[in-house]
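Task 17 of the worksheet. Students: predict the tertiary structure of the chain below and write it out as structure tokens. Keep your answer in the requested format; marks are given for formatting as well as content.
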Amino acid sequence: MDFPRGHLSYSQIRTYLICPRKYQYAYIEQVPVPLNDKLLLGTVFHSVLEWYFTARLAGSMPGLDETDACFADSFQRLRGAQAVRWDDSPERVSRRGHAFVQHFFHELAPRFDPLMVEKELTAPLDNQPVELRGVIDLVEKDLSITDFKTATARWSANRVRHAQLQMQIYNYLFEKNFGNANSQQRFCVVYSRRGQSVHSQLLEVAAGSDDREHLFQVIGYVADGIQAERFPRNEGFRCGFCEYRDVCLGATPCKRRKHEEEVDEIS
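Model answer:
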């Protein structure tokens, strides 16, 4: 079979690696499911960053009130545009998001010098009939790449290691489109469980040409599985909070939700 969207992305690859059956539900059958409130918050936060850095590129310097208003407008618009699964109340999720925006504005925004924002890149994969696609959150004037994440807790070293594949893909796409990228690539993780105390991490990630063989192997494995229509169910702790759980396993009580914070909230 062909790839359902005509290309592969990091989110597709990661979904297949976590559970091929989940990939089938999400990308092939396109089973409709509510957006959980953590993904909603991450999506809104990203839209604020895109607005803020785009304004910076246009020569303006948005203030905190403008940036906070952008979050409020985006939050209301997105929550009204689709079904949301609220694990916390909308009011508390909104307060947490406003706290994230304030932390970004005061602690992080001055550190970045934007060149490209939400830059979509595509490139064919060497020696594979596969097109890769990715959207890079921020490229700075020194050609360093930053990807922003929201979370409930700080990232562990193990979480960073598992996320390196995303930066390997971005490095490859950037090189194919523009030439060599800056070797500095990092995740900026903004995290808080309740919003009363917000923290952030700037996590450097090594991702260069030495990682290419591993990248090609992983993508080859995923591409072969999709084209061969191999979609087995990978049962484990993630089933307890998978949005496709009821479709896949039936409406049984969720278990081990404490592990939910280990999953990406937004890519």
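Marker's comment: Helices lie at 10-18, 20-28, 37-57, 64-81, 90-108, 157-178, 212-227, 245-249. The first strand starts at residue 35 and ends at 36.
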